[in-house]
Amino acid sequence: MAEIQIKGVAKSFGAFTALHSVDMTISDREFMVLLGASGCGKTTLLRIIAGLETPTQGEVWIGGRRVDHLPPKERGIAMVFQNYAVFPHLTVFENIAFGLRMQKMAQPEVQRRVNRCAELMHIEQLLKRYSGQLSGGQRQRVAVARALAMEPEVILMDEPLSNLDALLRLEMRSELKGVLAESKTTAIYVTHDQVEAMSLADRISVMNGGHIVQSADPVEVYRNPAARFVAGFIGNPPMNFLPARQTGAGRYHVAGTDVIGPDTDARIEYAVRPEDLTLTEPGQGLSATIRVVEPLGAHILVTCDVEGASFRAIIDSDARVKPGDRLNLAPMPDRVRWFDKETGLSVQ
Amino acid sequence: MAEIQIKGVAKSFGAFTALHSVDMTISDREFMVLLGASGCGKTTLLRIIAGLETPTQGEVWIGGRRVDHLPPKERGIAMVFQNYAVFPHLTVFENIAFGLRMQKMAQPEVQRRVNRCAELMHIEQLLKRYSGQLSGGQRQRVAVARALAMEPEVILMDEPLSNLDALLRLEMRSELKGVLAESKTTAIYVTHDQVEAMSLADRISVMNGGHIVQSADPVEVYRNPAARFVAGFIGNPPMNFLPARQTGAGRYHVAGTDVIGPDTDARIEYAVRPEDLTLTEPGQGLSATIRVVEPLGAHILVTCDVEGASFRAIIDSDARVKPGDRLNLAPMPDRVRWFDKETGLSVQ
Amino acid sequence: EVLFWSTQAQPVEETQKMRDEVVAGFEAGVDYQAPESGPWLTRAQAELSAGSGAVGVLGGLHGDLTAVRGGLADLSDIDISAIPAELAALGKLDTEQQKYIPWMQATFLMVANKKALAYLPEGADLNALTYDQLIDWAKAMAEGEGGPKFGFPAGPKGLKHRFFQGFLLPSYTGSTVNEFRSAEAEEAWGKFRELWQYANPASTNYNFMQEQLVNDEVWLTFDHIARISEAFNTRPDDFVAFPVPAGPKGRGFMTVVAGMGVPETAPDMAEAKALIDYMLKPETQLATLRATNFYPVVSVDMPDDVPASVKASGPAIATMTAAEDALPVLLPMGMGDLNGQFNQVYVDTFEQIILAGREIRPTLEQQAEALRALMDEAQAPCWLPDAPSEGACPVN
Amino acid sequence: MSDTVTAPPSVRKAGRWVFISGVVLLCVWTLLPIYLLMVNALSTPEEVNGFPKSFIPSFDLTSLRFFLEFEGVLNALWNSIRVAVVTMILSIGLGAPAGYALSRFDFPGKEVFRFLVVMTRAFPLPLLALPLAVMFLRVGLDDSILGLALVHTTLALPFAVLITFSLFSGIPFELEEAAFTLGCTRIQAFRKVVLPLAAPGIAASAVFAFVISWNEVFAAAVLTIKNRTLTAFLMQSLDWSPLHLKFAGAAALVLPALIFIFAVRKYLFAMWGIANR
Amino acid sequence: MPRYIPYLLLLPATVFLIIFFLYPFTQVAIESFTSNGSWSLANFQKASSHWKFGEAFKNTMLLAALVVPIQLAMSLTMATVVQKLQKGRSAILYIFAIPLGISDLAAGLIWLSIFEQSGFLNSILVNMGLIEKPILYLSYQSPWVILFAIMLAEIWRATAIMMVILVAGLGLIPREYGEAAEVFGATRWQRFYKVTLPMLRPSLQTALILRVILAFEVFAVVIALGGTQMPVLMSETFNWQFNLQDRGVAAAYAMVILAVSVVFTLIILRALHVPKEARS
Ligand SMILES: Nc1ncnc2c1ncn2[C@@H]1O[C@H](COP(=O)(O)OP(=O)(O)OP(=O)(O)O)[C@@H](O)[C@H]1O
Ligand SMILES: Nc1ncnc2c1ncn2[C@@H]1O[C@H](COP(=O)(O)OP(=O)(O)OP(=O)(O)O)[C@@H](O)[C@H]1O
Ligand SMILES: [Mg+2]
Ligand SMILES: [Mg+2]
Question: Where would I find the ABC transporter domain in this sequence (chains A, B) (predicted)?
Answer without folding.
Answer: 4-234
